[in-house]
Amino acid sequence: MRDEALLNVSNLTVNLLTAKSAVRPVDGVSYSVRQGECLAIVGESGSGKTVMNFAPLGLMPTGVTTMLSGSVKLEGRELIGLPEPEIQKLRGKSVGFIFQDPMSALNPVRRIGRQIAEMAELHLNMTPRAAEARALELVKLVGISDPVARLRQYPHELSGGLRQRIVIAIALAGEPKLLIADEPTTALDVTVQAQILRLLKDVQRRLDMAMVLITHDMGVVAGAADNIVVMYAARAAECGPVDKVLVSPRHPYTRGLINAIPRREDPIGSEFRGLPGIPPTLGAPIKGCALAPRCELAVPACSNSRPPLVRSDDSSVLVACPVVNQGKAAA
Amino acid sequence: MNMLNPILARLKKMPRAALITIGLFVALGTFAPWLAPQDPSAQNLLEAGLGPMAAHWLGTDHLGRDTFSRLIIAANTSLVSVGSVLGIAMTIGIVLGTIAGYHRGWVDDLLMRIVDVGLSVPSLIISLAVIGIVGPGYWTMVLALALAWWPMSGRISRAVAVSIMSKPHIEALRVLGASPWRIYFGHLLPGTIGSVMVYATADAGTAALAVATLSFLGLGIQPPTPEWGQMLVDALPYLESDPRQVLLPGLALTAAVIGFNTLGESIALNRIPKPLTRRMLAARRLEVASWDKENSDA
Amino acid sequence: MIHFISKRLKHSLVLLFMASLVCFTLVVSAPGNVAVLIAELRGAVATPGYVEQVAEEIGLHKPLLMRYVDWLGDAVRGDFGISYRTGTDVSADLANRMFVTGTLIVGSAAIATLISLALGFLGAFWPYKLPDRVSRGLALLGASTPTFFVGALMIYGFSVTFQLLPSFGFNGPKSWILPWLTVAVLPAAVLSRVVRVGLEEAMTSPFVLTAKSKGLGRTAILFREALPNITPLFINALGTQVGLMTATAIIVEPLFAWQGLGDYFLAGVRFRDFMVVQACLLIFLTFFIVVNLIVDLAVLLTDPRIRRQWS
Ligand SMILES: Nc1ncnc2c1ncn2[C@@H]1O[C@H](COP(=O)(O)OP(=O)(O)OP(=O)(O)O)[C@@H](O)[C@H]1O
Ligand code: SF4
Ligand SMILES: [Mg+2]
């Protein structure tokens, strides 16, 4: 079973139609996650990470019409084209979700215990009483002290870190095979971030789940993930095993990202080494390479056609940059 | 002029049906004396309770008066009294509201406390209490309703005034030593009046209802001046034999109020995002399809 | 919690005091000489001497403060003086009339709550689809039709045309239906919009995305997640509407020949019977204050966020 990917996304394209505009926040992206594996998705804000993971599972805000194409297979089952009631059955049961902002992810007027227990009732067919017991177990599992009292509290009575633990408990309650965590630590205090991340890693390993971890933080990627997809302007720029991509990044954008991490040997007060320029605003897909205006290596041909993802000859890494790929081949 | 601009800008976004209804009401009300084909008070007991016919398009009431003419004149009655009520109420509300918003502090606290109390008591009860003490009459009605209506515009003008006062260019004017009079009359008052008028217009429907209700109760517009509420109550004893005389004024009033209420709702709701209409969706789909074509061409 | 309740009670008492001052001042400042009115009422010729005697008797010469204290003391004990018009005790009429108006308000509030929840949910379940448009159209119609016209239509439809229900009198449930429906139309319309808009706003909050991610369906999300969120809002709006029903009662009671408080108040206003106006006004104001108090306490119970602020 281990060889068969749990989630297999290929050539996924998402168009969002709103009253104001049409955008394509995901443009032909492919990746896969196996059981027990953790895939990190990194990229600048607005590069389409959230949409890419949520849209195929029908989790878009109201007022947006979603158009999907390509293929998303969960346990071999095609999600694209699946009617909403069928997808609804998968949410919570096969896939658990963790959100960026735990402060707003919980219903403020319902007790925490109910919000966890209803998952067990819904997906494990438990009686309300059994579900309460299960909720207690889960709250203990995510490391919350005084669990009995917590279950009777309301979200606003807890700190951000505790709330995120509750959200994790909810995500785990249906015993999903895949966990999608959308920037689970971004809204938290720095000290709490590490704890939550450790917790996530820990439960993922213990329950042998697959996890998709969306993040901005390269440090998080290095510590937690097996594979990585680097997104830039709705497309995958580079993807492959974390140890290869982080150690020897090849795509100019990945290099820029890794370069931007402050290093110990930096003199204090030295200039921040971010990528110059700003990311493009999404709308119609860009004809050539989206990075061209910001790229050091850009050649005129970059703006002509879209660079394909090409497997480098030595490894499992895929890079969408002909300049780098050809350079490598020539060398 | 800068008072009219925000109003015109908002008018463009409002539902057309509502604007047409309101326009019709205002036009009828304004030109009623020239539009009414007959004398609305001319009684003719020989022609009482007739159905529609060439001489009386909508028939006659129990005193033989021409219903069509009376309905039209009633629009005028309604328009004039609603206008007076709102005019007086808005003047009081804007003056007190801007003073509260300009001064803040205890003046603000006291005025807003009064406004809160005023808003929590139904306007019908306030105006009836006043009429009960002073005695009925046209101007009692107008003043009593204005007394019940000013807290609303008071609260809105205060909110608008506070937001205007906290704008950076007003701060700057103050720091530069502009006189309080200049700030008040040059910036605060014009800005507030424009915004409050839009809300007041939307509220006109409720005011029209109140005028009609008081007249229905016999404490507002007095006969023989025709008014919809009063026409309705006059015809009520003949409901069984001649329901038309009850229905017509009721429908006229309801139509006018629907116009104003639609307007009010569109003002209250325009911050909620609407889903795509089918036509927009089709347009977006075309847009997306064109992307794929470009790409395959490339 | 206790702290909040005691604070809120104190606030209500202050409001009650202000309400009593308003009622007192209103009558004291009324134009015309009350003593003359009473003298004439008693059938006597209002000679200056007799007027003087009446004034002495009802304490017109006492200082205002004393008159206020006397009046308030009487009012608290349920003595609202004598009607200037009929010469009877105002309080004698009140108990029965309060029962009539109470029946009207309770029944209408229940009907309005049911209808508004049904219409609001219908709209929120199929937003911008046909059921929503129908519900919205009904709400607009209900909020725009004058209550007296609604009453006339009810009588015409149910009593005159189909002869199903009695059009007047207060005798038994069958005679209550038309007045209940008439009073319920406006609040049902307004509240249905509160439910509809409140639910829509709640459905766009982030926790609804969480609920969706749990695999809950739209019905479950509406009832389990969104409904508890709009409950405080709804209770508040319902409180306002129940307060407004006193005003509607003034229109509807005479229409259906009910002898309630609204009818009493209206008669008082018509004949400038100050004592009746004063008594009814005081009862109405007290009613608003009590309703507001109950609303605040109910909101406290339904909204844990506020509950925490005060505990
Ligand atoms: N509800 C929406 N309506 C319209 N456009 C949207 C909506 N949600 C996302 N988008 C578009 O999709 C793009 C990608 O959004 P997405 O939330 O996936 O970015 P992200 O990579 O998750 O960013 P972040 O790191 O800030 O979470 C946005 O730039 C925006 O243009
Ligand atoms: S394709 Fe060209 S612009 Fe894009 S990353 Fe490579 S070198 Fe830079
Ligand atoms: Mg995101």
TrEMBL record, chain A:
It is found in: Cell inner membrane. GO terms for cellular component: plasma membrane. It is a peripheral membrane protein. The keyword Oxidoreductase does not apply. Pfam families: ABC_tran, oligo_HPY. Residues 7-258 form the ABC transporter domain. Gene3D superfamilies: P-loop containing nucleotide triphosphate hydrolases. Keywords: Amino-acid transport, ATP-binding, Cell membrane, Membrane, Nucleotide-binding, Transport. Belongs to the ABC transporter superfamily. This is Peptide ABC transporter ATPase. The lineage of its organism: Bacteria, Pseudomonadati, Pseudomonadota, Alphaproteobacteria, Hyphomicrobiales.
TrEMBL record, chain C:
GO terms for molecular function: dipeptide transmembrane transporter activity. SUPFAM superfamilies: MetI-like. Residues 98-295 form the ABC transmembrane type-1 domain. GO terms for cellular component: plasma membrane. The chain crosses the membrane at residues 104-126, 138-165, 177-195, 233-256, 276-301. This is ABC transporter permease. It is a multi-pass membrane protein. PROSITE patterns: ABC_TM1 (PS50928). It comes from the Bacteria. It is found in: Cell membrane. Belongs to the binding-protein-dependent transport system permease family. Keywords: Cell membrane, Membrane, Transmembrane, Transmembrane helix, Transport. Pfam families: BPD_transp_1, BPD_transp_1_N.
